[in-house]
Structure formats: structure tokens, C-alpha cells
Amino acid sequence: MLVFNAVLLFIFDFYIFFALRATKIKLVHKKWFPFVWWGYSIILFAGLFIAAKFSIPLSYRSIILVAFFMTAISKFIYIAVVLIDDIRRGGIWISRLFLPKKGKLPAERIAELEEPLPEKPRNGISRSDFLLKSGIVIASLPVFPLSWGIISGAYDYRIRRQKLVLPNLPNAFDGLRLAQISDVHSGSFYNHKAVRGGVEMLLQEKPDMIFFTGDLVNNEASEMRNYQDIFSMLKADLGVFSTLGNHDYGDYYYGKEDSLAKRKNLQHLIETHRVMGWDLLMDENRTIRVDNEEIAIVGVQNWGTGRFPKKGDLTKALSGTADKDIKLLLSHDPSHWRAQVLDTDVDVMFAGHTHGMQFGVRGEHFQWSPAKYVYKEWAGLYTEKQQQLYVNTGFGFLGYPGRVGILPEITIFELVKS
């Protein structure tokens, strides 16, 4: 994938470079411009290769990923503008080829076609120059919100409050406060103090119980080394329960085939949950008792549609819960809800995974993100008859080290008996 991305972006570089050289922009005709243009690309890809293959400080890794992400977005946008101009010019050429002007002999027509397409300036600038120069402005526009998303959005933790109305809720659990976080992705963090601030914000809510719904790391359990002490602070009277997400298995680093290194990494991650005091539910359940009344907390390993791992065994996880009036399920991927969970008697499923694509708009009565075109349920509360799903948009970030509009989320639920 790294090689493919490198080849693709270098193709973009060639295409854009020669498009720019065809303009009358003085800067791109300077002798030093090719050295700057190609030198930046070479340095960028060298940095990306080092970040992918070697262990380097997270701050440097983040700088490299930000530079790559912003460069790729800007060039992709500019490619679209250049294509518009090339399509326009191609249309002119085709129209001249098939719609000859009246009074011109074939020989004259052939000679005309062999000449370059004229670009007559209108008010001092040709159409091509106008498009290509405008494209530079358009391609640079995403840099501003994306930069702001890194500076302000990455650690701008927000509390979202949600009541869960449950008809069969035992009286002893009426009013119980439950906190959820998801998708920590500790390998992306670069601000220890800010992460601690988010955890302290959750603790100030004094929840009775805490859920974590997967993706503690990006790839390796060792990513938690600098943050384990912070997340160990999460404590609740009725317990902290967790489950695994698709990134926790190490598939994106070690490959999908089984190996000793991959198994050791997973065991290290499982041990990390234990050391932090989190009860990791691996296709199993726990009974929570308050004043002689009970509910079931159920957790499955990752189960997602499409290319995502289907490791969870829901039947096994629900075993022994038939007599419980309320079943609360931790399952990382929201696609699991429609695929399997709606066919069970689970009351509420808690998920994460989508991140809200870390980009969009989320208000009290309206929300939008490109994530909605990938996941039917991507953020917030969803109801199907008597069953509910809540999708948390994540505590951390992945890839792009920031958030625009879809801010890092800490959800506080109140269980209410209807």
C-alpha cells in the first residue's frame, strides 16, 4: 500500500508539474523550481517510509503524516481542476476535427489541426491560465480548516449526554450513570497533557460504570506504554468494561496470517487491559448486581461486515443471560447491529469504529459526515423497535491527526425506566 500511494502521488506530481509549466506563472519557470518541487516530494516519501518501517518519536511521525495528508488532499483537488481544463481543450480539438469551418479545404483543415490550440487571452488572461491559477487557490483552501482541526480539534474533548429509556430496567438501576469512550488509538497521540485532561473530564462526571468499545491502539500494544498510566485512572464503582476493535489484533502491521509475533502482541494488549483494571470481555458476559437486582454486560470481539475481522461469537457471549431483564452489549463495529444483534434480545449495543470520519457537522438536531455514505449508523443513538444502538465517534484519531466538526467524544448515559 505504501508503494502504491507513493507511485500514485508521483504520477500526480508529474501531471501537475507540467500543467504548471504550461502556464505563464513566472515562479514555476525559475531554474530552482524543479529542485524544490521534486525535492519536497522525495523528502516527504522518505519520511513516510521511515515512519512506516522504523520506530521514531510520535511527534515526528505526526508531522510527517500531517504533511503527507495535506499534500495529497491539495494535489488531488488540483488534479481535478487540471482535468477540467484538459477536457475543455480536448473538446475544442474534437469539435475542430469533426466540425470543420465552412469554406476551408481539407489541406487547410489538416494544417490547422496540427497547430497548437490557440489560447486567446480575454481581458489579459487565457481560459487555461485562469483555470490553473484558480486551481492553486482552490487546492490551498483545505489547508486552513485541516490545520485548525489539528491545532484545535484533535484534543477538544466534548461531553455528550444521552438518556437511554429501557422499559424492563430493574428499579435499582434507574438513574444509573454510564460513561463510554471508544477508539483511543494511542499510537496517534502526541500530547500527553491533553489526553490526561480528557480522562479527567470523564472522571469529573463520576459515572457508576465505564465502557470502552475497542481500538486501544493503531497496531502494536507497545503504543500504550506512554499512556497506560493515564487510562489506568479510569475507575467506577460497578467496573470498567472493555472489548477489542479491528486495530487491536495487529492485522494492519503483522498481516492477516497468524504468527508468533502477532500472537504475542495480542497477549500483550490483553495484559494491558488487565493491568489498567479494565475487564476485557472476549465473547463473554458479566452480571452486575445492585440491591438484589441484576443486568448483564456482554462483550464480543470485533465483528464487522465487509473486509473487517469477524472474530466475535455473539451466541457464546450471550450464553447464560436468558434470565436477565436487561442486556447491554459492547461491540466495536456498528455494522454488527443490523447483521446479527437485532436478531437477539440485546437491549442496547454500544459501538465506535466510524470516528465520524473526523470530519463533518454535528449539532443538536442535525449531523452530517462522509461516514454516512459508508455506515448506515455512524454517530449517536439509533432505535429499531425496542432495541437501541449508540455509536461513539471516538476519543482519539487515526491517519489525519485532527478533527474538523466531529470532535472527540465522551458519552455520559443515564439509564431510565419508562
- Name the CATH superfamily assignment of the largest domain: Metallo-dependent phosphatases
Please provide the ordered H/E string of secondary-structure elements: HHHHHHEEHEHEHHEEEHEHEEEEEE
Largest sheet: 6 strands, mixed
Q: What is the strand tally?
A: 14
Q: CATH first level of the largest domain: which class?
A: Alpha Beta
CATH architecture of the largest domain: 4-Layer Sandwich
Averaged pLDDT: 86
* Count of helical regions: 12
Strand portion, in percent?
15-25%
The strands making up the biggest β-sheet line up spatially as: 1-14-2-3-4-5
Report helical residue fraction.
25-40%
Show unreliable segments.
Answer: none
What overall form do the CA principal axes indicate? elongated
- Helix and strand content put the structural class at alpha/beta
| Total domain count | 2
Radius of gyration: 27 Å
